[in-house]
Known about the structure:
This protein has helices at residues 2-11, 13-18, 37-48, 67-81, 105-122, 163-174, 185-191, 197-217, 228-242, and strands at residues 26-30, 51-56, 85-90, 130-136, 152-157.
Amino acid sequence: ELHDAVQWPLEHADIFEKFAISPPKGIMLHGASGTGKTLLAKALAHESGVNFISVKGPALMSKYVGESERTIREVFRTAKQAAPSILYFDEIESLVPVRGKDSGSGASFTERVISQFLAEMSGIEELKGVVILATTNRLDLVDPSLLSSGRFDLVLELPKPDAAAREKIFEIHLRKKPLSAEIRIPTLARLTDGRSGGDIAFVCRKASMMAIRDHIKGGGEAEPLLEWRHFETALKELKNVSS
């Protein structure tokens, strides 16, 4: 569904026009930290071959009056000029938080920023050839006005990976690494049940660093290998970090 929502409007705009239907203007991905939202966004851009404009929500915030609104206008203008393009907002909850939680000048600032963002998404000037993609760890912190029709029409949750997905993630991280014959990726996937893609990356990185350390301290004579004991230690460290 995500692939179709991003790819089809960019590649087959004429078909959408023929059927007189508007594709989703914005797509919101939400889920726990480490579920691969940012990686998925970049993969979609790479696969589609269009320009990818990435923006960190906090980076648009400024203490100067009117500066944040101006930056938002410029970002959207850049995306239109670079069309076909994907305009990606990471940590969007920091840019357009739920209104009513601040008071005084803080509330006024939030109101102005959200109003500017909504104006760019729903304005008179059409976002032709531009797909707005955003990610958040906390959908409940995003102002509800952005989730209405004509804004972020498609909201998708990215759950933590199942066993098959965890195997794929391990395969990606271990593809070019020297593995000993005892390593079984299905076993690693089973031992990381309930873990995120970020957790799996942590395990692979830790195990690799231990293998490198062993190789260097051993004089560098033996063949460098990732062994099961390295993964056992890395999995224990993951448990300690998470507890």
